[in-house]
Amino acid sequence: MSDYIDLKNFISKRKSLLIAPAGCGKTYTIAECLKYTEGVHLILTHTHAGVASLKEKIKEKGIKTNKYRVETIDSYAQKYVNAFYCRNDVPEQDSKDYFPFIIEKAFELVKIKPISDVIKLTYAGLFVDEYQDCAKNQHKFIMALSEILPTHVLGDPLQGIFSFREQKLVDFDEDLKGFEKFDLKEPWRWKNTNPELGICLMKIRKKLENKEDIDLNTFKDAIEVVHINEEDISKPHTNYNKKIWDLLNESNLLIIHPESRSINTRIKIIKNFENRIYLVEAIDDKDFYKFSKNFDKSTPDNIYKIIYDFISTKAIFKKTGIENWFNKKSLKQKKNEKDREKIEPIRKNLEKLQNKISFLLIAQTLKQIKNLPGVLCYRKELFNDLCKALEEAEYNNTSVYESMKKIKNRKRKIGRKIEGKCIGTTLLVKGLEFDTVAVLNAHKFEDPKNLYVALTRASHKLIVFTNSSILSPYSKQRNVN
């Protein structure tokens, strides 16, 4: 479905579904469709990185911003609950129950006629991208919206990786029976950069759909395979370590690690490569809220401890860098005059804070600490958002926690562009594309969907690090059976 007639056919349906493999142009299809629509269209997706990607691709097509609104499903639902839900039983935003609650209440609210009338007057239609990641409750919410607006959903069941124990994902065959189906099959992402890679990834997709093992030797013309021992990544002069150093010369690089349960492995890699890699954070990682609440407890008596607890927390800063300047209970006494000059502004700020708490001054002090020689910050987004939350709390006379919630909600609505040299997991980078992608320890992927998402993020160069040429992403299921 790549021509004008098919696009018009797709958007002419009251309910339509577009299924397409990764790289075949789902997002660009939304942008193209907007050329042939009237009025304002609502475009929903799942992640703030996805919001930024959609906005960028729509902008590339020259579509005027008054023709569309892009935000996450959660953000859009949250807007209605914040405006119209009056009871006081809303869970805290840092609770795992918060967004399921928001989606459920939004589902109830949009069925109320005055609210549905406002939606109908505001928007001419709805697009939902990455539909395979809709949990059942989100799907129910979208179906309620589909009774109000013409609805066009786009997705790929093989990329549905947002399924967790407590939530099942939408089933395209069972849950979208009333939607007319369309498809895309041309791998456009690689057309002008690496056509052979696009062809190989389509073949790999077919193998994954058929639950077959993948022999990387058959794709070596398009995919660079590096045979490794896992532990060698941290050992200088090993092939694994040297290859990562070489890749850091790339300007647009994504490193994907199969371990998604903890950031510690990714932090260790960032440390091993001298902080030259940016950590992609989960938007609602609990640490953003935890440290915000900690700073809300600041008093003149405990402010040093609260600051020290933050800067000495494992994985935020380089430990030896912090220990060079700070003791557990006070700043270190420096003999070197240049060192004394560098630490003196921090000492003065701490003295002021021990007289009177100022969130603005705390943020300023944290930034001064970050700039000390030898101090490296591994979690830059956490640090930057916390400083912003402190500053906004001061300006708006609110708590740091409330300010952090607003920052997160803005990102959900506005989006967050991810670029440069980054490391993340499939859950954090799906829907994105980078010139060069390195998939680490590919043999550790036990789920075919996560492996497929990882392999399809590269638009030009794909490097797969593995201890075996044969990838068996179904091995876990086979062992269970």
From TrEMBL:
Which biological process terms from the Gene Ontology are attached to this UniProt entry?
A: recombinational repair
Which InterPro entries does the protein's record reference? DNA_helicase_UvrD/REP, P-loop_NTPase
**Pfam family, any one:** AAA_19
| Source organism, top-level taxon | Bacteria
Annotated GO MF terms: 3'-5' DNA helicase activity; ATP binding; DNA binding
- Gene3D superfamilies cross-referenced by the UniProt entry: P-loop containing nucleotide triphosphate hydrolases
Per its record, how is this protein called by name?
A: Uncharacterized protein
Organism field: Petrotoga mexicana DSM 14811
